[in-house]
């Protein structure tokens, strides 16, 4: 059994999605960031830096922080969604690290300046608008002609997808990025992703882009 300490953030969601994909038994504990519960003495015993997500693996007593490390640990523990060696393994880890070091921080700032404080700092808003588009262009280029980020579906996709699911908050129209849109919708259909998206509790359906008016196959899209 794994205890997952989490909240309704992209980093939290990618961990719950991963646990659902791996099919590993776990219990989710909501750490309400809006109430400052991450700074409680009880949670600091688990996460000294007051960050979510965190897991406690009761099979071996391991306490582990940082979502990228957690996904890698779960993949190695179960032998799934991460090749064991060779170039294929490093291709997956490359995109996990890209999300942790580039996509996540940039989009986190984009949420802050473009959605929550749109008039606070025009220069910062312009910077993160530009940087967000640059990262989407990188994703678009890479995903063109591919189903997933690194070969088969992997922890790379689990890591990146929850951040893209916040496209409305960072003012991105997914219809401008056809390859990203296709990849996003394909993953959104996975039952494990839909279950993980509701952890630690249901906050709303998975956001979907507007239907493409020139593509009749998209007319049946509904919120998941």
UniProtKB/TrEMBL annotation:
UniProt-listed CDD domains: GST_N_Ure2p_like
Top-level taxon of origin: Bacteria
PROSITE patterns: GST_CTER (PS50405), GST_NTER (PS50404)
Domain GST N-terminal, residue spans: 1-82
All residue ranges annotated as the GST C-terminal domain in the record: 85-210
Name this polypeptide is given: GST-like protein
Organism: Pseudochrobactrum asaccharolyticum
């Amino acid at each position: 059994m794994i205890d997952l300490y989490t909240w309704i953030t992209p980093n939290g969601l990618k961990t719950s999605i991963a646990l659902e994909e791996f099919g590993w038994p776990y219990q989710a504990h909501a750490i309400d960031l809006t109430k400052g519960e991450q700074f409680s003495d009880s949670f600091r015993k688990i996460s000294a830096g007051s960050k979510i997500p965190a897991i406690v693996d009761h099979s071996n007593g391991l306490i582990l922080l940082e979502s990228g490390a957690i996904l890698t640990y779960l993949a190695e523990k179960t032998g799934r969604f991460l090749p064991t060696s060779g170039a294929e393994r490093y291709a997956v880890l490359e995109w996990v690290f890209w999300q942790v070091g580039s996509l996540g921080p940039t989009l986190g700032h984009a949420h802050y300046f473009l959605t929550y404080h749109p008039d606070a700092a025009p220069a910062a808003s312009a910077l993160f608008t530009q940087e967000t588009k640059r990262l989407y262009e990188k994703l678009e280029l890479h995903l063109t002609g591919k189903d997933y980020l690194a070969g088969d579906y992997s922890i790379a996709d689990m890591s990146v997808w929850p951040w893209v699911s916040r496209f409305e908050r960072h003012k991105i129209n997914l219809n401008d990025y056809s390859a990203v849109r296709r990849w996003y919708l394909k993953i959104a259909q996975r039952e494990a992703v839909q279950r993980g998206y509701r952890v630690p509790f249901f906050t709303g359906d998975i956001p979907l882009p507007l239907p493409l008016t020139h593509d009749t196959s998209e007319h049946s899209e509904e919120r998941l």
